[in-house]
Amino acid sequence: MTDSSGGGISATDRLRLRRTVRRWFVPIVALLLVVAALGAGTAYATHVEPGETTEERVVSTWSDEAEFSHSAAVQRDTAAFSNDTVLRNRPAYYTQVSPDATLAYASGYTASDGGSLDIETVLEVRWEGTDGDGNVLWRVTEPVATSSWTDVGPDETRRVETTFNATDVNNRIEAFHEELGSSRGSVETVFVARTTRSGEINGQSVQHSRTHSIPFDHRESTYGFLEPSVETVSRERTETETVPVVHGPVRQAGSILLTVVPLFGALGMGLARRKRVFELSAEENAALEHALVREEFDEWITTGTLPASRSESDPVEVASLEGVVNVAIDSGRRVIEDGDRYFISTPELSYLYVNDAPSVESVSAPAESDPRPRPSRIRRRRTPTKPATRPTPPETVGRPPRWPRPTKTPSRARRRRSRGAGARTTATEANADTADRSQFEGVCERRAKRTAGGFAVPARSGRRCGPTGTSDTAVRGGLGPV
To answer: Pairing relation of β-strands 316-317 and 350-354?
Structure first.
């Protein structure tokens, strides 16, 4: 609900907020202090004693490296290749052009904190016969090259190589078949490099062996090498250490704000209470109570303008707006609102409530905001005119007088029932009024023939005939034409 001046919050809400803060001042301040205490604890744990944690720290690393390379020299001129041209790492070499091949194996290592190793590499060729199920039938291994080195440092590479005739390697397979007397299965030719390393790396003693291989593929007119099985192995040494916990910027700033903001809030509320900011004057209390009741019964109130002739003559004065609304609910009527006046008319009586409390906007606005003088709210009480005495019907003799029902707060279900009952009562009264009007106009015509002017009807009907014999507009309770 926004203020009519566009300020965002209405005057009623401002008064309601002040009263709520005044009633719940102690719990609100206590809650702010609890939040500040939690924030102080979080800030202490974040900035003063963040605590410690353990983590793994890499102290040093090292890895061994190896690779195969191969080449073949062209031994005669061709249209495709010139003589003495060296072909390197080709997928295939031609036996007639380059019958001799060179296979090299290079190994080394890297270390973060230095080292010294003795390295020995043995390069050998292995023939292996297998059947269709992958079972090894026979195996022959022959060393083709051996090299060793001492005091090899990190990032240093040592190389071993061998040169062989591709046709001779393939002829060895036929020799093996002749020796065995059988060519069952298939034969695979593989070059294997076995490397042994021993020494010290990163201040620690090291000794290990590695085996790498590369298959050799020989066909009738070509030969080549397939994909080698070489992998680089890395190793690292870690240590467990205790380090202080480092919190993120959100917690570092949030813990301070969580401490400072509630403390300033509690201090500000204390100063405001000392200056009696939350205290409501009697005028403000009356205005707020009236605004709350007016808001609660808004669906039963219709804004309108009362005729000046009926403003304060006959109605029954009701002490509260809630009382007028209760009468409206019990009688199935609407409440007419005209500024500070709330009016309701029933067939028997009319009721009026005048609000003496100032409006919420007037008590909430600054004094200098409206320099115009505020109209006086002093209401003059007039003695209501005594109504004409009605003759007592015989059927009502001995019965207790009818008084308005005692006021009480209506429930939501009772409001719905009252609305339905009010609608039915209004329809019944309208039908009865139409019939009564027709009968009354007939009486007026008959009497007009016997008299020269108008005549008065008994006060019970509240009507009178005009000078021409027709009925004037009905007047109920001095309110004017209905």
So the answer is: parallel
Answer whether 321's CB lies under 8 Å from 353's CB: yes
Segment 183-195 mean pLDDT: 91
Query: Can you give the pLDDT at residue 100?
Result: 93
User: Could you tell me which of 482, 476, 443 has the C-alpha nearest to residue 454?
Assistant: 443
Q: 286-295, 362-371, 438-447: which range is least confident on average?
A: 438-447
Provide the residue type at 175 as one letter: A
Distances (CA, A) of 403 to 226, 263, 295: 116, 59, 28
* CB-based contact 106:113 (threshold 8 Å): no
| CA of residue 353 relative to chain centroid, distance | 49
CA-to-CA dists, residue 82 to 77, 78, 89, 158, angstroms: 5, 6, 17, 31
Cβ atoms within 10 Å, residue 133: 6
Q: Smallest Cα–Cα separation from 478: which of 404, 385, 342, 366?
A: 385
Comparing 77-81, 230-234, 432-436, which segment has the lowest mean pLDDT?
Answer: 432-436
Q: Is the pLDDT of residue 444 over 80?
A: no
Q: Are strands 136-152 and 115-130 parallel, antiparallel or unpaired?
A: antiparallel
Average pLDDT of the residues in 37-54: 86
CA 236, CA 232: separation in Å to the nearest integer? 13
The ranges assigned to domains in the chain are 1-50+246-279, 59-235, 281-395+403-410
Q: Are 345 and 333 in contact (CB under 8 A)?
A: yes
Model-wide pTM > 0.90: no
Q: Is residue 259 classed as helix, strand or coil in its secondary structure?
A: helix
Which residues does 21 contact at the CB level (< 8 Å), separation at least 6? 28, 269, 278
Look at residue 477 in the predicted model and tell me its pLDDT: 35
